[in-house]
Automatic annotation (TrEMBL):
Full-sequence range covered: 1 to 180 of 1193
Function: Required for chromosome condensation and partitioning.
Summary of subunit composition and partner proteins: Homodimer.
Family: Belongs to the SMC family.
Superkingdom of this protein's organism: Bacteria
Gene: smc
Residues bound to ATP: P32, N33, G34, S35, G36, K37, S38, N39
Record comment regarding domains: Contains large globular domains required for ATP hydrolysis at each terminus and a third globular domain forming a flexible hinge near the middle of the molecule. These domains are separated by coiled-coil structures.
Subcellular location: Cytoplasm
Protein name stated in the entry: Chromosome partition protein Smc
Length: 180
């Protein structure tokens, strides 16, 4: 299973429909400052159901919709489609290719689709739940975090690793239990 393509339309700086093809392995996105590299990562988090505006580097969810530029009017909706190659059947659905779409309007309403059929966010979460991707299962290391990790004190670095491995929440619960 791997991410096959990402199409963004009206999402952040991507006013016109833009499709990026992704190959198996490592993908690098290069470009000048402010050209929209981080917005590509935000689009992946968003289509997988991210609900926090902060995680998407905005103040409110509406900030994901193209806000207009000097030469171009704002748009009324944002749409992102992520296509996943499922030839190995890692996702429990009878399709070799699975497209997940999220669409949002200025009134805040979101629509979700799996292969073009309208569905609930819960259906997407269930589909992805054992795959290692999904709202809380993939790991996105934010800009500047890698630097922070490399320069961190050993004990702080350990908490990064524990967070990535998913044990930090258990340690916090253990510490809380011991304090009581
Ligand atoms: P850097 O190299 O500095 O990290 P980057 O390539 O990661 O830059 P992004 O943060 O992805 O850049 O993109 C920032 C750009 O996206 C800014 O120019 C900002 O104005 C634009 N942008 C963000 N949200 C919107 C929006 N809703 N509508 C229009 N443009 C937006
Ligand atoms: Mg960036």
């Amino acid at each position: 299973m791997h991410l096959k393509s990402l199409t963004v339309k009206g999402f952040k700086s991507f006013a016109s429909a833009t499709t990026m093809r992704l190959e198996p392995g490592i993908t690098c996105v290069v470009g000048p400052n402010g050209s929209g590299k981080s917005n590509v990562v935000d689009a992946i988090a968003w289509v997988l159901g991210e609900q926090g505006a902060k995680a998407l580097r905005g103040g409110k969810m509406e900030d994901v919709i193209f806000a207009g530029t000097a030469g171009r009017a704002p748009l009324g909706r944002a749409e992102v489609t992520l296509t996943i190659d499922n030839t190995d059947g890692a996702l429990p659905i009878d399709y070799t290719e699975v497209s997940i779409t999220r669409r949002m309007f200025r009134d805040g309403a979101s629509e979700y689709e799996i292969n073009g059929n309208q569905c609930r966010l819960l259906d997407i979460q269930e589909l992805l739940s054992d795959s290692g991707i999904g709202r809380e299962m993939h790991i996105i290391v934010g800009q500047g975090r890698l630097d922070a990790m490399l320069h961190a004190k050993p004990e702080d670095r350990r908490s990064f690793i524990e967070e990535a491995a998913g044990v930090l929440k258990h340690r916090k619960r253990k510490e809380k239990a011991i304090r009581k």
